[in-house]
Hints:
The complex is a heterodimer. By secondary structure, chain A is mainly alpha-helical. In chain A, about 70% of the residues lie in helices and about 0% in strands. Chain B has 9 helices and no strands. Chains A and B meet through helix 2, helix 4 and helix 5 of A and helix 2, helix 3, helix 6, helix 7 and helix 9 of B. Bound molecules: zinc ion (ZN).
Amino acid sequence: MLKCENVQPQLSAYVDREMPLWTVRLIRWHLKRCPTCAHEAMRIQQTDKILQQLDPVKTSDNFLPDLMRCAAAITVIEREQISAIRRILRRLESSFAWMRYSFRTRMRPYAVAASLALIVSVVSLTLYQPRLPLPSNDALTLAQVPSEKQALLVEFEIVPINQFPKPHLSSNRRTSPFTPVDQHQER
Amino acid sequence: MRTSDEELMMKCRNGDMSAFELLVMRYKDLITNFIYRSISDYHRAEDLAQETFLRVFRSAGRYEPKCQFKNWLYLIATNLCRNEIRDRKRRNTAYLDDLIPDNEDTSYVELMQDVSQLPDEVYEKKERQIIIQQTIDRLPENQRLALLLVSYQNLRYDEIAEVLECSVSAVKSLIHRARQNMKTLLIEVGIGESSHAKV
Ligand SMILES: [Zn+2]
């Protein structure tokens, strides 16, 4: 058994026949037994009839001619736009054709030269390795520094050459070659 | 045999102006009526109806025959109506609110002045129509459009759903609410419950 609160929201769709047949039958069955819902359905139909009392209006005589004139104008404008687009495309096409032609005839030697230059520069950049400073090597430093100073000291007769300590070329220890031999040995 | 709207539209797409003219002839009164009842301004309704057909003509190239022509036409008209209603509302709130305390009453007086020279029966009928139109104008935008489409243009709920771009159940509820409001408003203005005999 359908309840009034379920039937009433469906009444508009019932009046418009916008529901499955079995629902229409159920609601019709309810309306026969419920004066409240039947009255509500009648009110909806009445509202619709009031709306349909509104006289239809007719368009004025110049509605169609005016409209067709506008449509024709649109057609002309569109045709002009299309032809303008075509003209632009044709111009672009011809300029591309000119570019292709000039490349084939005049520009080819320059283009070949430019491509070769580009290839050479790319290859040389790839192969070029910049000279980086050598990593500090204790053995080498020890070997080089004393030899210069050694020469100076010997030259100015500050140190006799036979007293000069031998540098530890294989040693990684940070020992100064100018340290007296006994001190060096103590450490 | 009658050529279908969709066939005419396909011809129109290929630049056939007579096909377009035939489509306009079929729908011009229906569309003008629908717009007129939505915005209640005849001259503006004609302009918007023309604009609707011009939009159809302009976008004929994009028309897909799988979509029903009539629904597409109503969709364009409905969107134009919506824009018009919103524009008016904006204009009214911006400029007229301070100047005219009750816009509806003013338009009613103007309309009644137009018909006051008519014979009694015609005058009464006209007066009644003006009141009904004003009641429609008081409905919210979507309810008004949905109610006009179902009761005045006899569209099905699924067609209205396509036109208003919502679901069928939303249409169902819109129409239900529109009728409830319409019923109350009609009783308020003295048309309805007590006027069974007239209907
Ligand atoms: Zn009931």
